[in-house]
Amino acid sequence: MVNIRVDPRLLRFSAVAVVLIFTVFILSRGSTTTYTGSVGGVVPSSSSGASYSESKVQVKQQIGQGVITNTINEKGLKKQAQKGTVKATFVSLARNRDLWSLVGSIRLVEDRFNKKYGYDWVFLNDEPFSEEFKRTTTALVSGTTKYGEISKEQWSFPEWIDLDKAAQVREDMKKNKIIYGDSISYRFMCRYESGFFYRHPLLQDYEYYWRVEPDIKLYCDIDYDIFQFMKDNNKKYGFTISLHEYQATIETLWSTTKQFMEKYPQHIHKNNMLDFISDDGGASYNLCHFWSNFEVGSLDFWRGQAYSDYFDFLDHAGGFFYERWGDAPVHSIAAALFLDREELHFFTDVGYFHPPFHSCPIEDEYRLKHKCMCNPADDFTFKGYSCGLKYYDVNRMQKPENWEKFA
Ligand SMILES: Nc1nc2c(ncn2[C@@H]2O[C@H](COP(=O)(O)OP(=O)(O)OP(=O)(O)O)[C@@H](O)[C@H]2O)c(=O)[nH]1
Ligand SMILES: [Mg+2]
Protein backbone atom coordinates (compact mmCIF):
# COMPACT_ATOMS: atom_id res chain seq x y z
CA MET A 1 0.00 0.00 0.00
CA VAL A 2 1.35 3.40 -1.00
CA ASN A 3 0.98 6.28 1.40
CA ILE A 4 0.50 9.59 -0.48
CA ARG A 5 1.25 12.76 1.49
CA VAL A 6 0.17 16.02 -0.11
CA ASP A 7 1.93 19.26 0.75
CA PRO A 8 -0.77 21.62 2.29
CA ARG A 9 0.83 24.66 0.57
CA LEU A 10 0.44 22.90 -2.80
CA LEU A 11 -3.21 22.21 -1.96
CA ARG A 12 -3.88 25.88 -1.12
CA PHE A 13 -2.13 27.01 -4.30
CA SER A 14 -4.21 24.62 -6.44
CA ALA A 15 -7.47 25.82 -4.85
CA VAL A 16 -6.63 29.47 -5.54
CA ALA A 17 -5.65 28.62 -9.14
CA VAL A 18 -8.99 26.85 -9.75
CA VAL A 19 -10.97 29.82 -8.40
CA LEU A 20 -8.97 32.23 -10.57
CA ILE A 21 -9.45 30.17 -13.74
CA PHE A 22 -13.18 29.87 -13.03
CA THR A 23 -13.53 33.64 -12.52
CA VAL A 24 -11.71 34.43 -15.77
CA PHE A 25 -13.97 31.97 -17.57
CA ILE A 26 -17.15 33.61 -16.21
CA LEU A 27 -15.94 37.11 -17.10
CA SER A 28 -14.95 36.12 -20.61
CA ARG A 29 -18.45 34.83 -21.42
CA GLY A 30 -19.96 38.33 -21.34
CA SER A 31 -23.69 39.00 -21.07
CA THR A 32 -26.12 38.74 -23.93
CA THR A 33 -29.41 40.28 -24.86
CA THR A 34 -31.50 38.39 -27.34
CA TYR A 35 -34.33 39.68 -29.44
CA THR A 36 -36.35 38.31 -32.26
CA GLY A 37 -36.33 40.53 -35.29
CA SER A 38 -38.15 40.54 -38.58
CA VAL A 39 -35.87 41.27 -41.49
CA GLY A 40 -37.21 39.88 -44.75
CA GLY A 41 -37.75 36.25 -45.72
CA VAL A 42 -41.09 34.46 -45.56
CA VAL A 43 -43.33 33.12 -42.82
CA PRO A 44 -46.64 31.32 -43.31
CA SER A 45 -49.77 33.23 -44.28
CA SER A 46 -51.94 34.69 -41.55
CA SER A 47 -55.48 33.50 -40.95
CA SER A 48 -56.68 36.37 -43.14
CA GLY A 49 -54.82 34.83 -46.06
CA ALA A 50 -52.28 37.65 -46.21
CA SER A 51 -48.62 36.75 -46.38
CA TYR A 52 -45.94 38.45 -44.40
CA SER A 53 -42.38 39.22 -45.25
CA GLU A 54 -40.33 38.35 -42.27
CA SER A 55 -38.13 35.80 -40.59
CA LYS A 56 -36.77 35.54 -37.13
CA VAL A 57 -33.17 36.35 -36.39
CA GLN A 58 -31.36 36.11 -33.14
CA VAL A 59 -29.26 39.14 -32.38
CA LYS A 60 -26.71 39.04 -29.61
CA GLN A 61 -25.25 42.12 -28.05
CA GLN A 62 -21.95 41.79 -26.27
CA ILE A 63 -21.98 44.21 -23.41
CA GLY A 64 -18.25 43.86 -22.66
CA GLN A 65 -17.23 46.08 -19.75
CA GLY A 66 -20.70 45.99 -18.23
CA VAL A 67 -20.49 42.26 -17.68
CA ILE A 68 -20.14 42.16 -13.91
CA THR A 69 -22.86 44.71 -13.23
CA ASN A 70 -25.24 43.02 -15.64
CA THR A 71 -24.62 39.62 -14.16
CA ILE A 72 -25.26 40.92 -10.68
CA ASN A 73 -28.41 42.73 -11.82
CA GLU A 74 -29.61 39.67 -13.61
CA LYS A 75 -29.16 37.56 -10.50
CA GLY A 76 -30.82 40.15 -8.30
CA LEU A 77 -33.75 40.39 -10.67
CA LYS A 78 -34.16 36.68 -10.91
CA LYS A 79 -34.29 36.45 -7.15
CA GLN A 80 -37.05 39.05 -6.91
CA ALA A 81 -38.99 38.07 -10.01
CA GLN A 82 -42.42 36.59 -9.68
CA LYS A 83 -42.14 36.03 -13.45
CA GLY A 84 -45.53 36.11 -15.18
CA THR A 85 -46.74 32.80 -16.53
CA VAL A 86 -49.74 33.83 -18.62
CA LYS A 87 -49.33 33.66 -22.40
CA ALA A 88 -49.42 37.41 -22.73
CA THR A 89 -47.58 40.25 -24.39
CA PHE A 90 -47.49 43.99 -24.70
CA VAL A 91 -48.17 45.24 -28.20
CA SER A 92 -47.28 48.58 -29.74
CA LEU A 93 -47.99 49.72 -33.26
CA ALA A 94 -45.44 52.35 -34.12
CA ARG A 95 -43.39 54.10 -36.78
CA ASN A 96 -39.63 54.42 -36.49
CA ARG A 97 -40.07 58.10 -35.76
CA ASP A 98 -42.29 57.23 -32.77
CA LEU A 99 -39.27 55.69 -31.02
CA TRP A 100 -38.46 58.53 -28.64
CA SER A 101 -42.12 59.05 -27.71
CA LEU A 102 -42.46 55.34 -27.08
CA VAL A 103 -39.37 54.83 -24.90
CA GLY A 104 -40.91 56.89 -22.07
CA SER A 105 -44.05 54.74 -22.21
CA ILE A 106 -42.02 51.54 -22.13
CA ARG A 107 -39.83 52.69 -19.27
CA LEU A 108 -42.88 53.54 -17.13
CA VAL A 109 -44.63 50.27 -17.92
CA GLU A 110 -41.47 48.40 -17.02
CA ASP A 111 -40.85 50.37 -13.81
CA ARG A 112 -44.42 50.23 -12.57
CA PHE A 113 -45.26 46.68 -13.64
CA ASN A 114 -43.31 44.59 -16.04
CA LYS A 115 -39.88 44.44 -14.42
CA LYS A 116 -41.53 42.11 -11.89
CA TYR A 117 -43.11 39.84 -14.49
CA GLY A 118 -40.95 39.98 -17.62
CA TYR A 119 -43.72 39.75 -20.20
CA ASP A 120 -42.81 39.98 -23.90
CA TRP A 121 -43.34 42.98 -26.12
CA VAL A 122 -44.43 42.83 -29.77
CA PHE A 123 -43.80 45.86 -31.99
CA LEU A 124 -45.67 46.21 -35.28
CA ASN A 125 -44.99 48.59 -38.14
CA ASP A 126 -46.10 49.07 -41.75
CA GLU A 127 -42.42 49.52 -42.62
CA PRO A 128 -39.30 47.66 -41.43
CA PHE A 129 -38.13 48.75 -37.99
CA SER A 130 -34.75 50.45 -37.88
CA GLU A 131 -31.84 48.88 -36.02
CA GLU A 132 -31.88 51.87 -33.68
CA PHE A 133 -35.56 51.24 -32.86
CA LYS A 134 -34.89 47.56 -32.15
CA ARG A 135 -31.73 48.08 -30.13
CA THR A 136 -33.22 50.83 -27.98
CA THR A 137 -36.52 49.13 -27.19
CA THR A 138 -34.87 45.77 -26.56
CA ALA A 139 -32.60 47.35 -23.98
CA LEU A 140 -35.64 48.64 -22.07
CA VAL A 141 -37.94 45.61 -22.08
CA SER A 142 -37.43 42.89 -19.46
CA GLY A 143 -39.15 40.23 -21.58
CA THR A 144 -38.39 39.14 -25.15
CA THR A 145 -38.98 41.76 -27.84
CA LYS A 146 -40.33 40.84 -31.27
CA TYR A 147 -40.60 43.03 -34.35
CA GLY A 148 -43.12 42.44 -37.09
CA GLU A 149 -44.05 44.00 -40.38
CA ILE A 150 -47.61 44.47 -41.52
CA SER A 151 -48.63 43.10 -44.91
CA LYS A 152 -49.50 45.68 -47.57
CA GLU A 153 -52.90 44.05 -47.96
CA GLN A 154 -53.77 44.95 -44.38
CA TRP A 155 -52.39 48.50 -44.67
CA SER A 156 -54.09 49.80 -47.83
CA PHE A 157 -57.51 50.43 -49.38
CA PRO A 158 -59.49 47.23 -49.82
CA GLU A 159 -60.53 46.64 -53.45
CA TRP A 160 -64.22 47.45 -52.83
CA ILE A 161 -63.51 51.01 -51.70
CA ASP A 162 -64.31 53.80 -54.20
CA LEU A 163 -61.10 55.84 -54.02
CA ASP A 164 -62.65 59.03 -55.46
CA LYS A 165 -65.44 58.95 -52.91
CA ALA A 166 -62.89 58.40 -50.11
CA ALA A 167 -60.76 61.32 -51.36
CA GLN A 168 -63.81 63.59 -51.42
CA VAL A 169 -64.58 62.67 -47.79
CA ARG A 170 -61.02 63.55 -46.73
CA GLU A 171 -61.32 66.88 -48.54
CA ASP A 172 -64.62 67.67 -46.79
CA MET A 173 -63.33 66.64 -43.36
CA LYS A 174 -60.27 68.81 -43.83
CA LYS A 175 -62.52 71.80 -44.53
CA ASN A 176 -64.55 70.97 -41.45
CA LYS A 177 -61.35 70.72 -39.38
CA ILE A 178 -62.07 67.20 -38.16
CA ILE A 179 -59.00 65.88 -36.39
CA TYR A 180 -57.06 63.46 -38.65
CA GLY A 181 -60.01 63.90 -41.09
CA ASP A 182 -57.74 64.25 -44.12
CA SER A 183 -55.28 61.52 -43.16
CA ILE A 184 -55.02 58.26 -45.09
CA SER A 185 -52.45 56.67 -42.76
CA TYR A 186 -54.60 57.38 -39.69
CA ARG A 187 -57.43 55.49 -41.39
CA PHE A 188 -55.12 52.57 -42.21
CA MET A 189 -54.06 52.58 -38.55
CA CYS A 190 -57.67 52.56 -37.27
CA ARG A 191 -58.63 49.75 -39.65
CA TYR A 192 -55.53 47.76 -38.68
CA GLU A 193 -56.12 48.14 -34.94
CA SER A 194 -59.78 47.26 -35.49
CA GLY A 195 -59.40 44.13 -37.56
CA PHE A 196 -55.87 42.87 -37.98
CA PHE A 197 -53.37 43.32 -35.16
CA TYR A 198 -54.55 40.18 -33.35
CA ARG A 199 -54.09 38.11 -36.51
CA HIS A 200 -50.44 39.00 -36.88
CA PRO A 201 -48.26 35.85 -36.77
CA LEU A 202 -46.23 37.26 -33.88
CA LEU A 203 -49.38 37.37 -31.74
CA GLN A 204 -50.48 33.83 -32.47
CA ASP A 205 -48.66 32.42 -29.44
CA TYR A 206 -50.45 34.68 -26.97
CA GLU A 207 -53.83 34.68 -25.20
CA TYR A 208 -53.79 38.23 -23.81
CA TYR A 209 -52.35 41.57 -24.87
CA TRP A 210 -51.82 44.99 -23.36
CA ARG A 211 -51.71 47.83 -25.86
CA VAL A 212 -49.20 50.60 -25.23
CA GLU A 213 -48.90 53.83 -27.23
CA PRO A 214 -46.26 56.55 -27.39
CA ASP A 215 -46.46 59.37 -24.83
CA ILE A 216 -48.54 57.56 -22.24
CA LYS A 217 -47.85 57.47 -18.51
CA LEU A 218 -48.54 54.90 -15.83
CA TYR A 219 -48.98 56.74 -12.56
CA CYS A 220 -49.10 54.04 -9.88
CA ASP A 221 -47.26 50.88 -8.87
CA ILE A 222 -49.11 47.83 -10.07
CA ASP A 223 -48.29 45.10 -7.60
CA TYR A 224 -50.27 42.22 -9.05
CA ASP A 225 -50.06 40.41 -12.37
CA ILE A 226 -52.73 42.08 -14.50
CA PHE A 227 -52.72 39.28 -17.06
CA GLN A 228 -53.16 36.68 -14.34
CA PHE A 229 -56.02 38.77 -12.98
CA MET A 230 -57.70 38.77 -16.41
CA LYS A 231 -57.34 35.03 -16.73
CA ASP A 232 -58.38 34.11 -13.18
CA ASN A 233 -61.46 36.32 -13.33
CA ASN A 234 -62.47 35.42 -16.89
CA LYS A 235 -62.08 39.03 -18.05
CA LYS A 236 -61.92 39.65 -21.78
CA TYR A 237 -61.60 43.43 -22.08
CA GLY A 238 -60.09 45.97 -19.68
CA PHE A 239 -59.90 49.75 -19.97
CA THR A 240 -58.96 52.84 -17.92
CA ILE A 241 -60.64 55.81 -19.62
CA SER A 242 -63.97 56.06 -21.42
CA LEU A 243 -65.37 59.09 -23.21
CA HIS A 244 -67.66 60.36 -25.95
CA GLU A 245 -66.66 60.00 -29.60
CA TYR A 246 -66.81 62.83 -32.18
CA GLN A 247 -70.15 62.23 -33.89
CA ALA A 248 -68.79 63.52 -37.22
CA THR A 249 -66.32 60.62 -37.50
CA ILE A 250 -68.88 57.83 -37.09
CA GLU A 251 -72.13 59.14 -38.65
CA THR A 252 -73.32 55.70 -39.84
CA LEU A 253 -71.47 53.37 -37.43
CA TRP A 254 -74.56 52.72 -35.31
CA SER A 255 -77.00 52.23 -38.19
CA THR A 256 -74.50 49.77 -39.70
CA THR A 257 -74.23 48.03 -36.33
CA LYS A 258 -78.02 47.75 -36.15
CA GLN A 259 -78.07 46.08 -39.58
CA PHE A 260 -75.41 43.71 -38.28
CA MET A 261 -77.47 42.89 -35.16
CA GLU A 262 -80.47 42.06 -37.36
CA LYS A 263 -78.38 39.78 -39.56
CA TYR A 264 -76.48 38.08 -36.71
CA PRO A 265 -78.72 38.09 -33.62
CA GLN A 266 -76.89 35.00 -32.36
CA HIS A 267 -73.78 37.10 -31.66
CA ILE A 268 -75.45 39.43 -29.16
CA HIS A 269 -74.77 38.23 -25.62
CA LYS A 270 -77.80 37.78 -23.36
CA ASN A 271 -76.05 39.61 -20.53
CA ASN A 272 -74.51 42.34 -22.70
CA MET A 273 -73.71 45.96 -21.73
CA LEU A 274 -75.92 47.75 -24.26
CA ASP A 275 -76.93 50.19 -21.52
CA PHE A 276 -73.40 51.60 -21.48
CA ILE A 277 -73.43 52.53 -25.18
CA SER A 278 -77.09 53.41 -25.65
CA ASP A 279 -79.50 55.45 -23.51
CA ASP A 280 -82.61 54.36 -25.40
CA GLY A 281 -82.42 50.58 -25.54
CA GLY A 282 -80.36 50.52 -28.73
CA ALA A 283 -82.27 53.02 -30.89
CA SER A 284 -79.26 55.35 -30.90
CA TYR A 285 -75.59 55.32 -29.88
CA ASN A 286 -74.69 57.62 -27.00
CA LEU A 287 -71.06 57.89 -28.29
CA CYS A 288 -69.55 56.28 -25.15
CA HIS A 289 -66.48 54.22 -25.88
CA PHE A 290 -63.41 52.84 -24.13
CA TRP A 291 -60.28 54.75 -25.08
CA SER A 292 -58.34 52.09 -26.92
CA ASN A 293 -54.84 53.54 -26.52
CA PHE A 294 -54.95 51.50 -23.29
CA GLU A 295 -56.43 48.03 -23.67
CA VAL A 296 -55.79 44.80 -21.83
CA GLY A 297 -57.74 42.11 -23.58
CA SER A 298 -58.26 38.59 -24.75
CA LEU A 299 -56.92 37.97 -28.25
CA ASP A 300 -59.32 35.06 -28.63
CA PHE A 301 -62.24 37.42 -28.25
CA TRP A 302 -61.17 39.36 -31.35
CA ARG A 303 -60.33 36.14 -33.16
CA GLY A 304 -63.75 34.63 -32.40
CA GLN A 305 -66.69 34.30 -34.78
CA ALA A 306 -68.77 37.20 -33.45
CA TYR A 307 -66.04 39.82 -33.81
CA SER A 308 -64.77 38.39 -37.11
CA ASP A 309 -68.27 38.69 -38.59
CA TYR A 310 -68.63 42.19 -37.15
CA PHE A 311 -65.32 43.49 -38.50
CA ASP A 312 -65.99 42.05 -41.97
CA PHE A 313 -69.43 43.63 -42.00
CA LEU A 314 -68.06 47.05 -41.00
CA ASP A 315 -65.11 46.78 -43.36
CA HIS A 316 -67.38 46.09 -46.32
CA ALA A 317 -69.68 48.95 -45.33
CA GLY A 318 -66.63 51.18 -45.94
CA GLY A 319 -66.88 53.54 -42.97
CA PHE A 320 -63.17 53.33 -42.19
CA PHE A 321 -62.70 55.33 -45.43
CA TYR A 322 -66.06 56.99 -46.23
CA GLU A 323 -66.10 58.34 -42.66
CA ARG A 324 -63.27 58.02 -40.13
CA TRP A 325 -64.35 55.18 -37.88
CA GLY A 326 -61.91 54.72 -35.02
CA ASP A 327 -60.84 51.40 -33.54
CA ALA A 328 -61.97 52.66 -30.13
CA PRO A 329 -65.73 52.86 -30.84
CA VAL A 330 -65.52 49.71 -32.98
CA HIS A 331 -63.85 47.67 -30.20
CA SER A 332 -66.10 49.21 -27.56
CA ILE A 333 -69.38 48.48 -29.32
CA ALA A 334 -68.22 44.92 -29.92
CA ALA A 335 -67.16 44.41 -26.30
CA ALA A 336 -70.44 45.87 -25.04
CA LEU A 337 -72.59 43.71 -27.33
CA PHE A 338 -70.80 40.38 -27.69
CA LEU A 339 -69.38 39.88 -24.19
CA ASP A 340 -71.05 39.03 -20.92
CA ARG A 341 -70.94 42.32 -19.04
CA GLU A 342 -69.07 40.49 -16.27
CA GLU A 343 -66.22 39.96 -18.74
CA LEU A 344 -65.42 43.68 -18.94
CA HIS A 345 -63.16 45.34 -16.42
CA PHE A 346 -62.59 48.96 -15.43
CA PHE A 347 -58.99 49.38 -14.23
CA THR A 348 -59.60 52.23 -11.78
CA ASP A 349 -56.32 51.44 -10.04
CA VAL A 350 -53.50 51.74 -12.59
CA GLY A 351 -53.29 55.54 -12.94
CA TYR A 352 -52.96 56.37 -16.63
CA PHE A 353 -52.39 59.27 -18.98
CA HIS A 354 -52.67 59.62 -22.72
CA PRO A 355 -52.78 63.22 -23.85
CA PRO A 356 -54.98 64.99 -22.88
CA PHE A 357 -56.82 62.85 -20.31
CA HIS A 358 -55.74 61.48 -16.92
CA SER A 359 -57.04 58.58 -14.89
CA CYS A 360 -55.87 59.16 -11.31
CA PRO A 361 -57.18 57.18 -8.32
CA ILE A 362 -58.94 59.75 -6.16
CA GLU A 363 -58.62 57.92 -2.82
CA ASP A 364 -55.60 59.32 -0.94
CA GLU A 365 -54.82 56.08 0.84
CA TYR A 366 -54.59 54.08 -2.37
CA ARG A 367 -52.57 56.75 -4.14
CA LEU A 368 -49.98 57.02 -1.40
CA LYS A 369 -49.66 53.29 -0.90
CA HIS A 370 -49.04 52.74 -4.60
CA LYS A 371 -46.67 55.69 -5.01
CA CYS A 372 -48.93 57.34 -7.59
CA MET A 373 -47.48 60.50 -9.13
CA CYS A 374 -50.72 62.10 -10.36
CA ASN A 375 -52.89 64.94 -9.11
CA PRO A 376 -56.36 63.58 -8.24
CA ALA A 377 -57.86 66.92 -9.31
CA ASP A 378 -56.88 65.96 -12.88
CA ASP A 379 -58.83 62.69 -12.80
CA PHE A 380 -61.15 62.57 -15.82
CA THR A 381 -63.43 59.73 -14.67
CA PHE A 382 -66.28 61.84 -13.30
CA LYS A 383 -65.89 64.86 -15.56
CA GLY A 384 -68.57 65.83 -18.07
CA TYR A 385 -67.05 64.52 -21.32
CA SER A 386 -66.11 61.19 -19.72
CA CYS A 387 -68.36 58.10 -19.64
CA GLY A 388 -66.85 56.93 -16.34
CA LEU A 389 -69.84 57.89 -14.22
CA LYS A 390 -72.15 56.09 -16.63
CA TYR A 391 -70.01 52.97 -16.35
CA TYR A 392 -70.23 53.04 -12.56
CA ASP A 393 -74.00 53.58 -12.71
CA VAL A 394 -75.06 50.99 -15.28
CA ASN A 395 -72.94 48.41 -13.49
CA ARG A 396 -74.09 49.46 -10.03
CA MET A 397 -70.49 49.83 -8.95
CA GLN A 398 -69.79 51.64 -5.73
CA LYS A 399 -68.25 55.03 -6.46
CA PRO A 400 -65.31 56.30 -4.40
CA GLU A 401 -66.18 58.54 -1.48
CA ASN A 402 -66.25 62.24 -2.37
CA TRP A 403 -66.38 61.52 -6.10
CA GLU A 404 -68.58 64.59 -6.60
CA LYS A 405 -65.62 66.75 -5.61
CA PHE A 406 -63.81 65.49 -8.70
CA ALA A 407 -66.71 65.90 -11.14
N1 LIG B 1 -46.54 51.96 -38.08
C1 LIG B 1 -47.39 52.98 -37.96
N2 LIG B 1 -47.94 53.24 -36.76
C2 LIG B 1 -48.80 54.28 -36.66
C3 LIG B 1 -49.13 55.10 -37.77
N3 LIG B 1 -50.00 56.05 -37.36
C4 LIG B 1 -50.19 55.83 -36.04
N4 LIG B 1 -49.46 54.77 -35.61
C5 LIG B 1 -49.43 54.20 -34.26
O1 LIG B 1 -50.77 53.89 -33.94
C6 LIG B 1 -51.08 54.27 -32.62
C7 LIG B 1 -52.16 55.34 -32.61
O2 LIG B 1 -51.71 56.49 -33.26
P1 LIG B 1 -51.73 57.92 -32.56
O3 LIG B 1 -51.06 58.87 -33.48
O4 LIG B 1 -51.22 57.80 -31.18
O5 LIG B 1 -53.28 58.22 -32.58
P2 LIG B 1 -54.19 58.85 -31.45
O6 LIG B 1 -53.86 58.24 -30.13
O7 LIG B 1 -55.60 58.75 -31.92
O8 LIG B 1 -53.82 60.35 -31.50
P3 LIG B 1 -52.68 61.16 -30.71
O9 LIG B 1 -51.98 60.20 -29.79
O10 LIG B 1 -53.45 62.20 -30.01
O11 LIG B 1 -51.81 61.64 -31.83
C8 LIG B 1 -49.78 54.73 -31.99
O12 LIG B 1 -49.20 53.62 -31.32
C9 LIG B 1 -48.94 55.16 -33.18
O13 LIG B 1 -47.57 54.99 -32.92
C10 LIG B 1 -48.53 54.79 -39.06
O14 LIG B 1 -48.76 55.43 -40.08
N5 LIG B 1 -47.68 53.72 -39.08
MG1 LIG C 1 -52.00 58.06 -29.27
Automatic annotation (TrEMBL):
<keyword id="KW-0328">Glycosyltransferase</keyword>
<protein>
    <submittedName>
        <fullName>Glycolipid 2-alpha-mannosyltransferase</fullName>
    </submittedName>
</protein>
<dbReference type="GO" id="GO:0000026">
    <property type="term" value="F:alpha-1,2-mannosyltransferase activity"/>
</dbReference>
<comment type="similarity">
    <text>Belongs to the glycosyltransferase 15 family.</text>
</comment>
<feature type="active site" description="Nucleophile">
    <location>
        <position position="295"/>
    </location>
</feature>
<keyword id="KW-0808">Transferase</keyword>
<dbReference type="GO" id="GO:0000032">
    <property type="term" value="P:cell wall mannoprotein biosynthetic process"/>
</dbReference>
<dbReference type="GO" id="GO:0016020">
    <property type="term" value="C:membrane"/>
</dbReference>
<feature type="transmembrane region" description="Helical">
    <location>
        <begin position="10"/>
        <end position="28"/>
    </location>
</feature>
<keyword id="KW-0472">Membrane</keyword>
<dbReference type="GO" id="GO:0006493">
    <property type="term" value="P:protein O-linked glycosylation"/>
</dbReference>
<dbReference type="InterPro" id="IPR029044">
    <property type="entry name" value="Nucleotide-diphossugar_trans"/>
</dbReference>
<dbReference type="GO" id="GO:0006487">
    <property type="term" value="P:protein N-linked glycosylation"/>
</dbReference>
<dbReference type="Pfam" id="PF01793">
    <property type="entry name" value="Glyco_transf_15"/>
</dbReference>
<dbReference type="InterPro" id="IPR002685">
    <property type="entry name" value="Glyco_trans_15"/>
</dbReference>
<keyword id="KW-1133">Transmembrane helix</keyword>
<keyword id="KW-0812">Transmembrane</keyword>
<keyword id="KW-0735">Signal-anchor</keyword>
<dbReference type="GO" id="GO:0005794">
    <property type="term" value="C:Golgi apparatus"/>
</dbReference>
